[in-house]
Structures are given as C-alpha cells and as structure tokens.
Amino acid sequence: MSIPKNDGDKPTDKPIKARGRPLSFDREAALESAMHVFWEHGYEGATIAELTAAMGITPPSLYSAFGDKERLFWEAIERYVEGPGSGIPRALAEEPTARGAIERLLREAAQELTRASHPRGCMVTMAATNCTVASAHIQAALAKRRAEVEAGIRARIAQGVREGELPAHTDAAALARLFTAVYTGMSMQAKDGATRAQLLATVDAALGAWPVAAEPVAAPAVPAKRAVRARSGA
After folding, report:
1. Mind listing the pLDDT tens digit for each residue in 138-149?
2. Buried/exposed code over 136-161 (b: 16+ C-beta within 10 A; e: otherwise)
C-alpha cells in the first residue's frame, strides 16, 4: 500500500553509515533485495540468514551497513513507499476529481499488487500481519501509516463534497473506510493468488458504491392537446 512518510515511526532519522573500511557491496542493490524478503515473509518471518543470502552479504556487513534488522526493515519500508507503493498519494494529488482519484488508485493497485517482478500484495499491509508481542511496536507503527493513507483518501473525498462533486450529505469518513477496506482486501486477495482481471472486477463493483449527486427533477411534460384544452377552458 502506498504510505506517506512518518519519520516518527522509525528508530532513526538517517540510515546507518558504515564505519571503517568502505562497503564492498552495492548498498542500494542490497536494500532492494532486503525489501523483497521483508515483503514476502514479513518482519518477523524474515530471518537474518534469508536477508543476508538475498543481499549477498555476511551478517557483520549487514550490521555495519544498516545497524540491525529493525533499522534495515524501516529502510526497506521507505524504499517501498517511494517506489512500488507511491501510487496512492500520486493519484490523490494529480486527479482533478475525487472519483477519478479513487478509481485511479484502485486500478493502479490492481496492476501493482499482481506485478510479476516483485512479491504480491502491499508490503505495508502484509509485513506485520503475524507479529508477536515482541514486535507489537512494528505492527502499531505500520497501522499508523495505513491510517494516514485513509486520512488522505478521506480528505480528497471531503474536497469533492465541498466542490459539489458529491452530495452534500456524503459521509466522507465512511466512504474513505470503504475504499481503504477494498484496497486492503485486494492486497490480501493478490497474496492469495487473485488475478489482475479479478481485482479489476472488484474495482468495478466497488465503484458502484460511489455517491451520485441528485439531478434536478424536471416537471413532467404536458401533452399538447391537453395543454390546448387547459387554455381554452375545455
């Protein structure tokens, strides 16, 4: 899921820099590989052995370059947010209508969540679904990020209400919860093997719940003969 940054969620504001000898590996490439491991297995499910094997480095190199597993995880989350997960804020900011923004973010999500070049589903949705008490702070921090996304969707819908795109009585908060739930459900379905076509069909169905501003009711037309009789008093 595309999530706005929240620096307060991370244990440090800056990546750990290696000390002593220069790194003997491509740090960005290693981070990309780590992101895929966390994305596939979640925070707790990803072991140091799996991470270092995917990154092509030794445990000492991981600790030297990234600090520890948790710091590496948050760097991987930021990489996801700025890359594969950046679609939602773009859609909300770029589309001229609220409906267009919601439709775009869901349709782009159907594409991204099922892309063959990376694990399925939303990394921020999936990374902490099975956390134990020991990692409850990770789960809470990711939940906070997801709440920020919902707040962004709510704000865009509320703007649509103010601009007359949606009926004045529209409950922006409820509608935002609905479409956030649709996105989250699509992420889980993609992880379970749903096809892109199936997710796009889900989008079509969900958009059927979009409120439509009521059209003014026109007065019924009076048949011509009846109108003549009315004027003549017949």
Report:
1. 999 999 999 999
2. eebbebbeebbeebbebbbebbbbbb
